[in-house]
Design goal:
It is a single chain. By secondary structure, the chain is of the alpha+beta class. It has a single domain, classed as Aminopeptidase (3-Layer(aba) Sandwich). Helix content is 35%, strand content 24%. The protein has four helices and five strands; from the N terminus they run βααβββαβα. The chain has a five-stranded mixed sheet, with helices on one face. β2 and β3 form a beta hairpin. α1 crosses α2. Bound molecules: coenzyme A (COA). Coenzyme A (COA) binds next to β4, α3 and α4.
Length: 166
């Protein structure tokens, strides 16, 4: 049995301390940010997305907990906002610790998120995934997520063979 347990402030600070360099590294690896500027860019991006930190309206941060083992196995960040008369439910992030992967935890967590979306009156769950993340793509495909919006990228200029950005 998997439960989503809301993070406390200290957990959230630990989450951010991991998330900021993680995003910096991924964006730098894809050439979206330079390696030198990426850490500060990531810090600023999180500050824009979460101006009130853990208390930012509509944003929820949870541990993924295996209730049977009383064990935190991962984390998720989701958001729910109302716009255009509709509830918009986004899975912003889901992470299962490497040693707990391929045991159905992400599947179970996404089921909990689906229940939460329904409870809030959202007609769908939306998320973004890098096209070069086969693990996550396989997970989402298996659970019935389908592409609804594609970001297209074309390299320009002399740098030619650099990594693709999104
Ligand atoms: C993607 C991620 C959340 C999956 O978590 P998980 O708990 O291992 O996923 P599940 O055990 O629920 O997997 C369910 C199904 O997804 C697919 N899947 C998951 N990981 C996979 C992998 N590494 N390779 C191939 N298929 C995979 C499989 O179909 C799997 O079913 P199966 O194990 O019966 O074959 C985890 O690998 C992770 O935290 N990755 C790093 C963070 C990340 O990329 N998050 C997504 C950002 S959009």
């Amino acid at each position: 049995m998997v439960r989503l347990q809301p993070m406390e402030e200290a957990d959230f600070e630990r989450y951010l301390a991991r998330a900021i360099p993680r995003r910096a590294e991924r964006f730098a690896a894809r050439g979206i940010w330079t390696a030198e500027a990426s850490l500060e860019a990531s810090r600023q991006a999180y500050a824009r997305q979460l101006p009130e930190g853990l208390g930012t309206p509509g944003q929820r941060f949870c541990h993924i907990v295996d209730e049977t083992k009383q064990l935190r196995v991962g984390e998720t960040w989701y958001s729910s906002t109302v716009e255009g008369g509709q509830v918009h439910f986004w899975v912003q992030w889901i992470w299962v610790e490497p040693e707990h992967r391929r045991r159905g935890y992400a599947t179970a967590a996404l089921q909990r998120l689906e229940e939460e979306a329904s409870r809030l009156g959202a007609p769908r769950i939306v998320l973004e995934v890098w096209a070069d993340n086969p693990d996550a793509m396989a997970l989402y495909r298996k659970l019935g997520f389908v592409p609804a919006h594609l970001t297209l990228v074309k390299r320009v200029g002399p740098s030619g063979a650099g990594p693709l950005e999104g």
